[in-house]
Amino acid sequence: MANVITKSDERRAYEEQVLRSFGGSNSAVDREAAQVIAARSQEAIAELRRMEGKNR
Q1: pTM for the full model?
Q2: Which of 31, 9, 28 is nearest to 20 (CA)?
Q3: 40-44, long-range: CB within 8 Å, 24+ apart, which pairs?
Q4: HSE on the CB side for 2, CA within 13 Å?
Q5: Tens-digit pLDDT profile for residues 15-53
Q6: Are 16 and 4 in contact (CB under 8 A)?
Q7: Is residue 30 classed as helix, strand or coil in its secondary structure?
């Protein structure tokens, strides 16, 4: 059985934004890189928000 990742529209849009911002083509390598960058960016943002809320 294959692993399937269901993505929200918001996540897809953010990945497309990252891909365009780096001038990536529509190759599989560029799409994969954009997915990783988008996911790690969102994780970092969530962590900063969590830390910010902790300091208040």
Answers
A1: 0.72
A2: 31
A3: 42/11, 42/14
A4: 3
A5: 899 999 988 788 889 989 999 999 999 999 999 999 988
A6: no
A7: helix
